[in-house]
Amino acid sequence: MTVPTDLRYTPDHEWVRLDGDEVTVGITQYAADQLGDIVFVELPDVGRSLERGKPFGVVESVKAVSDLFAPVPGAVTAVNEALASGPELVNSDPYGEGWMIRLSVADGAELDDLLDASAYDAIVAAG
Amino acid sequence: MPYGPHTDDDRTRMLTALGLSSVDELFDDIPEALRAFPLDLPPPEPEQELAARLRSLAARNRTDLVSFLGAGVYRHWSPPAVDQLLLRGEWYTAYTPYQPEVSQGTLQSIYEYQSLMAELLDMDIVSASHYDGAAATAEAALMTCRATRRDRVLISRGVHPHYRDTVATYFKGGLELDEIPLVTDGEAAGTTDMAALEAMLADTDRPVAGVVAANPDFLGLLEPMPRIAGLAHDAGALFVAVVEPVSLAVLAPPGSYGADIAAGEGQPLGIAPQYGGPYLGILASTEALVRQIPGRLVGMTRDLDGQRAFVMTLRAREQDIRRDKAASNICTNQALLALAASIYLATIGPHGLRDVAAIGAARAAELESALAGVGIRRLHPGPYLNEFAVEVPRALAVHRRLLGAGFLAGLALAEAEPADPTLADALLVCATEVTTSDEIARFARAIADAVAETAGVAGGTRR
């Protein structure tokens, strides 16, 4: 599997895209495939501030429920409202329409600890 | 497959396979203080002697009394079909099967129960059932905290004291529970104090997740449920209505006045009063809260061949999947008693249920007037359905004396609500469609006698 090279990743199978002083967060294609048909995504309220590594939401498929973890610290500036009625977007377009939240980050250097595409690929390949 | 306990050899082999030296190591995650301790039980007894002892204990139960006791458990006539069908061995489990879709009949019976309750309550979602009304109310209170991400719940003192105790127990893990007082005098006496509720909701430092009120309340009075719902919603809180199911045949259902969650005791629906249960916890919610409702949910769908099929649905909220983040750690339901409620409702039908509620109300009005005729008056002026409190001098002594005369004179409220001085000399009495005019007339005479007799007894509390 190859993953987009312009994103950063976490070992929890989330991706992060830096855009100015905001990041967009979602889950990877691999995670979406493993979960199966996603039926519900629970996201935080806008304005909530998240700590790195702490759960901020829940993604529920027909067979499992998984927590979503904040990949970097920051305040929630937007959540993908489209997922409320169309959670399947996470399966069909995990890196695009299936995004989950946007965070304002104080310092882009927070992303330095995250994995790049090849490191994440290696994790997936190792199973 | 042999059905027998594990032998020492079995245990050793299992421990070896797991790389453990003792069974206790399996429980290392559980703090020492929370682990089971040896129970102080008497030694085993021969079966005959034990049976004789249990029979003599059971014989101490009074089943001969003319009862005016309600207080959360109500006597009703139940069509014989209910108990007869429950005797069938196929139904004998409180559990949904672990491979549930194999048991289409069980799932269908639960689906029927959910559908009947949804209609009665006017709510979107009904769980497969919980242990009892108290457990359902506690789960409802927890739902409001999860859904609003707030941790303070207001519960009216008009909710049954046992339910309030149960909610308090569930909240010991770090959630806040505050009691809304009742109005002490005037037209609204005995119902939730709206001014107090408003003040409690106005405390913006401590935002409220949910407001819990009962209709009829514990004292039998009708509460202003739409107004309580409105105040709760204005403060961003959810509203939990605790209801008695038979009453819903004649009173507005929770869905009609904006309840987000409804909870209640299903015992009045074809389940005989029993010493301690088992009973039936009803829990229902709006569709918006479907992922917060704990316990089993059964849905109807189509299988690959396009045929109707029943399935367990939204399992992902449950503990076998979500572990410690599950909506509840109790997924058990009361399938047999939910079935009893379904058969009861299906047998007597909507008109029958309306008759049950209306006749009960008429009998209660007759009881009120018979008691007034001997000078025993209601404690509160507000409207009630089939249960109300009466002022009785030396209520505890009168209650005790009436047991001797063959009457269960309702509930001595001083025992249920010792902290409330307005209830010190009061009995909570109830009538249903099985209460007869003759019983009411005899009870009125007996209570008048008991009041007169206790007047001469020193202290008034001992016979």
Strand order of the largest sheet of chain A: 1-2-3-9-8-5
CA-based gyration radius of chain B: 24 Å
- Provide mean pLDDT of chain B, rounded: 93
Main sheet overview of chain A:
6 strands, antiparallel
Strand content of chain A: 25-35%
> Overall 3D geometry of chain B?
globular
Number of strands of chain A: 9
Strand pairing plus helix content of chain B: what structural class?
A: alpha/beta
Overview of the structural elements:
The complex is a heterodimer of chains A (127) and B (463). With 127 residues, chain A is α+β, with helices and mostly antiparallel strands. Chain A has a single domain, classed as Beta Barrel (OB fold (Dihydrolipoamide Acetyltransferase, E2P)). Helices cover 20% and strands 34% of the residues of chain A. Chain A is built from four helices and nine strands. In chain A, the strands form two sheets. Chain A has a six-stranded antiparallel beta sheet. Chain A has a three-stranded antiparallel beta sheet with strand order 4-6-7. In chain A, strand 6 and strand 7 form a beta hairpin. Chain A is globular. The relative contact order of chain A is 0.26. The mean pLDDT of chain A is 92. Chain B is an alpha/beta fold. Chain B folds into two domains: 115 residues, Alpha-Beta Complex (Aspartate Aminotransferase, domain 1); 264 residues, Aspartate Aminotransferase, domain 2, CATH 3.40.640. Chain B has 13 helices and 14 strands. In chain B, the strands form four sheets. In chain B, strands 2-8-7-6-5-3-4 form a seven-stranded mixed beta sheet, sandwiched between helices. A three-stranded antiparallel beta sheet of chain B has the order 11-14-13. The C terminus of chain B is likely disordered. The interface between A and B is small, with 10 and 7 residues.
Brief overview:
Chain A has 127 residues and is α+β, with helices and mostly antiparallel strands. Chain A has one domain: Beta Barrel (OB fold (Dihydrolipoamide Acetyltransferase, E2P)), CATH 2.40.50.100.
